[in-house]
Amino acid sequence: MILDKQEDNCFVVIAYCIMNNHAHFLIYTEDLEKLGKTMHNVNLKYSQMYNKENQRCGIVFRNRYKSEPIYNTT
For residues 70 and 13, what is the distance between their CA atoms, to the nearest angstrom? Predict the structure, then answer.
């Protein structure tokens, strides 16, 4: 489980795949209202790390994230 202490968000990353120009995440959360802020923080922190490692600046992901809820797994 990942705990974002700044926002006191609890969410679970079930699966992820980081590709060369985008990423896919399967996330469980009980508070859908905070998902946007959580994804903003994830993208921001990843971009900062990626830019530092690659000695570059600027955006890493061009577009806003897209999400689709999964309510039933059967």
Answer: 14
33-51 pLDDT, tens digit per residue, is: 788 888 888 888 888 999 9
Q: Which of 66, 57, 56 is nearest to 22 (CA)?
A: 66
Look at the alpha carbons of 9, 11, 5, 54 in this order and tell me if their dihedral is positive or negative.
negative
Beta sheet of 9-18, edge-to-edge order: 2-4, 9-18, 23-28
Q: What is the pLDDT of residues 48-61, one digit of tens each?
A: 999 999 999 988 87
In the three-class reduction of DSSP (H, G, I as helix; E, B as strand; rest coil), residue 55 is classed as: coil
Burial 3-26 (b: 16+ CB within 10 A, else e): eeeeeebebeeeeeeeeeeeeeee
